[in-house]
Amino acid sequence: MALLGYRYAVTPNIYLGAKYNTLYQGFVSSSKPLHSARWIHGGALTLGISSLLGPIDVSLMYSSASKKIVPYFNSGFPFRYR
To answer: What's the pTM value of the predicted model, to 2 decimals?
Structure first.
């Protein structure tokens, strides 16, 4: 598995990100494989905002396994270590 990503701060509270990952699936053999070995690739474009309610991310993701573009929404809790 490999992951390559980049995150750019547009402003101190707004971020743009891009990620690409790849995985080789099926390198462990079994007596009854479910499918043949293959490479799976994926990527995502993300907009992140640091809001008063916490971090909020909205992404569009793609996977060669599903061959679909899927939206993803994530929110979190801000941990301020100061």
So the answer is: 0.75
Helix (H) or strand (E) holding 62, with range, is: strand 54-63
Q: Three-state SS for 63? A: strand
DSSP 18: E
Could you give the residue ranges of the DSSP H alpha helices within 1-82?
none
Query: Which pLDDT tens digits describe the chain residue by residue (82 residues)?
Result: 889 999 999 999 999 999 999 988 776 666 665 566 788 999 999 999 998 888 999 999 999 989 999 999 999 987 765 5
Q: What residues form DSSP beta bridges with 14?
A: 11, 49
